[in-house]
# Entry
Amino acid sequence: MSKFIRSADIEWFRQRLSWVMYFVTAAFVVIFLRLFYLQVIEGEEFSRLSENNCIRLQSVEYPRGLIFDRNGILLVDNRPSFNLSIVLNDARPVDATIEKLSQYINVPAEELASKASGIKGISSYRPILLKQDIGRDALAAVEAHKYDLPGVSVDVQPKRYYPYGKSAAHLIGYLSEINPNELKDEKYIRNKQGDFIGKFGIEKSFENYLMGKRGGRQVEVNVSGQVVRVLENIDAEAGNNIYLSIDQRLQKRAEELLEGKAGAVVAMEPSSGQILAMASQPSFDPNEFVSGMTHDEWKNIISQANRPMENKAIKGEYPPASTYKIVTAIAALEEKAIDVNTSFYCPGYIKYGNRDFRCWKKGGHGSVDVVRALAESCDVFFYRVGQRLDIDKLAWYAKACGLGSSTGIGLEQEGTGLVPSAIWKKKRFGTAWGSGETLSAVIGQGYNLVTPLQMLVLISSVANGGKRIRPIVMKRIETPGGQLITESKPEILGTLPVSRNTIDIVRKGLWEAVNKNYGTAWIARPGGGIEACGKTGTAQIVGRKEGDDEKMRVPQHLRTHAWFVSYAPSSDPKIAISVIIEHGGHGASAAAPIARELIKCYLNPESENTDHTGVTADYNIVYDEH
# Structure
């Protein structure tokens, strides 16, 4: 029995051993066939790869999203840029290769060598950028001599292009190379060294939407580093397209009217908050930043006294002058310090303490009520109001009207302005508020500071019946294929602290300022059946003695700033405008005509009476309201 069992075990073992032998034999056959394929059939190809070629991964840059105006006019595009690079390991001898390259493209060898040697910690197999956007002549020279330039290659990458140059530059912004600190920020986790990102304006605020997705490809290169073939490719994905709320036609007109001046114009649709134009002068060309700017060039721009890099529409802070009388009138009416029938006599000044507070009109306005005071910008009327109104109460109304804080437009570097109060002065200077200072505050002088955008929101709130609406610069965002991602909708920030009756009184005063012959802003009448409303302002930089002739005796940099805020049509406002001209003189003569031309451009584009200078020579405005 035991002998039978041992025989069965031996037979089982022989069968198992046979299966193992079959498996081992089959494995050796497969290995043999694979070796035969690699060494005999494909041997020559793999020998070529091992001796001369290698496989590399290359990054494929994405095109940024495009930017359009509200009507689909292309404001920001991408164009091809030919970038010259070198791979040091392939370019040996490097010095000789750079010397040849220098002769072919007419760039000093020292400049190219400094780029190649000045980069630390980068693998010798990675391409080093020698020169961006080399131009088609240099491209042709490199291609014609590519066999003499091992390791040198030209890559085509999308580059930002601003077809309108300086137009809307402060709103759109610009690109610049990412810096080391930004690379550490989680917000830029998808970026790498050498990337260009938004540094200002829309380009920065909407970076996450405009930025696309980087692609890549696997290529075979020869011993000179030249691409032999593409093995695999992953396409880059373009960024999303942004449609701004601005009207490029109106934007261009605003910039024409500001030409040669320092200041800002910003226009808005009062019912929606959509910004229709935002111009700041002087401006800059964002194309210069994309091409690369030296330290000296940047220093030269930022050191200019007229601040070309500042978006004066949102960052510039100025005394509001007589435009502030809108706030004073609201506060006085709501606090019952006056009513619509309250009148004060204006002899041209009032005496307060040991000082005379003058009205802009030397001979005085006579007896005026609040409507007439707004229309004629009577300082004495508002001085009298200031004697009845507490500064802290005035400050409360100013803040409730949106002054002293940002508007929430969504652009960086927006100014907040300043609304003075007794508490503020005590903290700031350690002294008590003087009652005479209230008389300066009620006419928009003293410590008051506002931005043109803040005043635009205020005048828009008056125009639409009291709703403070957040200003909007982005109308909608779409995918490259046209699919809607997001769309802006009106957002009410709050309401003016006023009754409907107060709004009507203020609006009547602003209407008379433009449409009555005694109004300070009659020059702003657009004609063509359009009735506008507005308020002028002339902000003093330094005090002037009575009888001084500003143009003859005051240096340019000390002359008054010119203000005008307006809306039209008066019955159904479609556009509101805020204009500030730095050291421009009087609001009536320098700022109001600009608003007039923009109203005509927007509401009556076919008008043949448009004054292309913005100021009509026949007018002789001498109004000097504060």
